[in-house]
Please model this.
Amino acid sequence: MISVIGALLPVFLIILLGVLLRRLPVFEEAAWRGFENLCYFVLFPVLLVKTLATAKLGASQVLGFSGALLFAIGAMSLLLLLFHPLLQRFGVGSAAFSSLFQGATRWHGFIALSIVGLLYGDAGVSWMAITMAVIIPPLNIINVAVLAHFGTTDSNLKDVSGKLLRNPFILACAMGAFLNLAGISLPEPLYDVLDILGGGALGLGLLTVGAGLNIHLVLQNRILVGFGSMMRLLVMPGLMFLGCWLFGIEGVARTVAVIAGAVPTAASSFILARQMGGDAPLMANLITMQVLLAVFTLPMMMWLAE
Model:
């Protein structure tokens, strides 16, 4: 456990540095949005293309790994939908439920990629790239469907589906997988360029996570936030571990799956909640609280996975 905490300490220190920098008159708000866009549209996709294009993974391993991931997100989605009538009895409205659903099922790719990149290198990033390719499409479709049903505004599913197809992470995974399966080697100068750019994603991505936190919100909606955080940070990694056990996945692949389940919910959940009639303030609270609690829960989940 001590070694896991020591390995994760740099991750959380960089996030803390982002919190401090956001509160100093160093960068304007527009600069932070630019940093986030740079990570989302350029640096992380480049990292995914580079690592997935050169990964050496067996087809049977990938198939079993994919099954474990889909089992976990399917089980969590079903569990939350079964909880809905009970939550209604306690006064949880439909909009709040949609935010709880996002908070428990969606995941923060910046944090997950940064952790596996720093701890496990290209091998970890390769498995994380497969994780993204497998679960980002169904998670987005499931959450859009839940928001369309439980949200308070009319939603255009066609527009959201179009955004999903243009998701830079999905496109990068598809490109990297194509290069890998086609046996196309990257020219060495191009590989070096991708390697340098991809390396910059890890630190900058974590800084933007810290900059986006709203610490003053953590005491609002404490019961719902606590429930949503427990489902995301404890139950979801447990389901990932169960899925890996069922499909015979071990080693780094299992640890990567558990990390994908144990990281906080996606920062973009707030935007989706606001656009599609979810409870946006509750979503903001969930994001912040989960990042803070993950300092304690993530090392424990990784230790259990290993």
